[in-house]
Write the structure tokens for this entry.
Amino acid sequence: MVRGETIMNEGVITNRANIVIIGTGFAGIAAAVRLQQQGEQDFILLERAADVGGVWRDNRYPGAACDVESHLYSFSFAPNPDWSRKFSAQSEIHAYLQECATKFGLMDRIRFKHEVQRLDWDNAAGEWTTQTNQGPFTAPVVIGAFGALSDPAIPALNGIERFEGDMFHSARWPETFDPRGKRIAIVGTGASAIQFIPELQPHAEQLFVFQRTPAWVLPKEDGPISEDERKTYHRHPVRMKTERLKLYVQREARVIAFRNPKLLKSVEKMAIRHMEESIKDPALRKKLTPDYKIGCKRILLSNNYYPALAQPNVTVDTAGIKEIKTDAVVDGTGQEFPVDAIIFGTGFQVTNLPFAHHVYGRKGHTLHEEWQGSPYAYMGTTVAGFPNLFLLQGPNTGLGHTSVILMIEAQVDHVMKVLAFKKQKQFDSIEPSVEAQDRFVRETDQSMEGTVWTTGGCRSWYLDETGRNSTLWPRTTISFRKKARDFRSADYVGTKVTEPRYTGQIAES
């Protein structure tokens, strides 16, 4: 059976492969490329949309861009000498992912418009059945590159169903939306909102910005990468590697301050100075000044957010939202704001991961039931009771200081080592031991103690419903990469069969 062959089984067409990858964002593409490099050819990728790109395909709102430098926010195995800016825009990152999928020969392996609805582990068969809107796929191994920022979070506001104007989340921005002359309500002031608010402000009649918690905002040291620099990167790839290494070291050092919040005072002063340069109104400045330590929530980067908020056609409201009417938003004080459109910049379902409700493991219950409100995984990648399942960008693999691509590649390295060990031992299934998983979670939680993410005085999206930070990795990426590289076979348990079902070609690490 080769390259995700479709076979006939008792009159039912069933798609089979050794490995199914779900998602074609950075994580899915990284996993697919590494599988090929290790000699594995029997895998397919399932993608619910009609194109690759994940979050960078979906977030097409005006001003969408990365807040990590381009040369670091890209694959180590696919450097790009043609980035046009220090911080790339959405369209460039999306184009980069399309180019990678094409360059590494992945397009023929992708089943587009296949939305995964459910995953079931079959103990007897030793494989996963992945149910999609276009039929089932079966494979011993599933790599879930679902994406941590893939499903929008929209608050359950009273009366929201009554609104008759345009209403959408920033990750579902309609191409036909025209802000000119409109009165627009913006709900949320996070990483997306601070990018699209400055783009809307010059065109809208009025912007009503409903802010629950102010963010700390620093200047964005952005700028074009000159044509001469790009030519140099083409001629001398080592220069580009040097630039990436420099950025890596600079950003890696920042975790020291996040782990020692007292060191963040100078950064906080920088953020206050940045605000004071644009916001002269004391009342507005007070609304925009956080009451928690910088770094507790995600630090945002922008040069035009504060200037936009200072314009006369922008109102910042901090009273909360009481209800939505057919043509207005009513705040917590009862003041009514007539609007033609409502845009949600309210982030994503990060700790209550939607996919977890649809993955059924060895005992027949879901990942959501297993986690009970607080996601965890060994190396943020594998979960006891869910054999042969690998989660990329899983629990505690997010970052607050540098590029998450570094973590994704380290996780993929770990996956390759587990699969090689599985094949070597002729295991039908493999999963972490409960003891190893508990140890990893305990050590991670201990490392989180004293960091600004847990002591900074805020309630961030990093924290799950139990109050635990199950989102971020609390140390350097160097430490995570070392853990991933130093594979401990004793931390895994496997089920052995006389004739191994896994026939992939992954070389032993």
Notes: Residues 160-215+254-344 form a domain with the FAD/NAD(P)-binding domain fold (CATH 3.50.50.60). Residues 76 and 406 are 8 Å apart (CA to CA).
